[in-house]
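ok so for the tutorial part 2 we go from a plain amino acid sequence to predicted structure tokens. step 1 is just haveing the sequence, like this:
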Amino acid sequence: MKNFRLWAILALVVVVAGLGAYLYWNHDVRWRPNTVTKNQAEIARLLESTGWVSPGIEGPAVYMVSFRTCPDCLRFKAEQFPDLHAAGIDTRVIEIARRDANGLERSTAAERATVAELWLNRDWGLFERWVQVPASAWTAPGIPPADGDSARTAVVDTGRNLVDQLTPLLKDNGVDFAYPLLVWWDQEGQMKACACERRETYRFLREDLGLPARSDTPQVPEGEEDGALAPAEPAAT
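step 2 — the prediction. this is what the tokens look like for a chain of 237 residues:
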């Protein structure tokens, strides 16, 4: 009987320890960004050489690779950009018009035209106007079409090729490419990256950049992400 009780206690300890380890992993570890230790210079060069757009804040940079109808991207923009801008952090957005897949079109003519224009002219005002209009209603007014224009089509393809180039480089650092892809440098100068598809990832980026773990900006209700990003005034620097 004494041995049975001892084994029961040991089994209980193992179960409790395992449950604690799982809860720690599920609520913390699984959401942490990866520290980029390989291909740092190449990743930084690729990001910097793109047609990113930003509010022009002279502070630390967060690079964000996204596409217009990505709900997780729109949610991050709506909920986190106001705090990042107020803290003097430059959000450098790299918009991609994704390739078609399995015979299905994954971008529109208006989206391709707008992506090409953003890459060529780096107009943050255009980006803000674009995300304030539901994607289905955006007609790219006054923007030259990319379709039928070899130079602008090449710009769109450059964005797609960027994803092809970044994917294996990030994979070497344990990051599976997904949208939104975020890359930043923490306060110790370490490069971090994550496919930040869930709100649970946001606090780590915020803490790395010196912000409180939680934001006071209201959360966007599920299913209402499109068009959720309001204009944001750049912070005084």
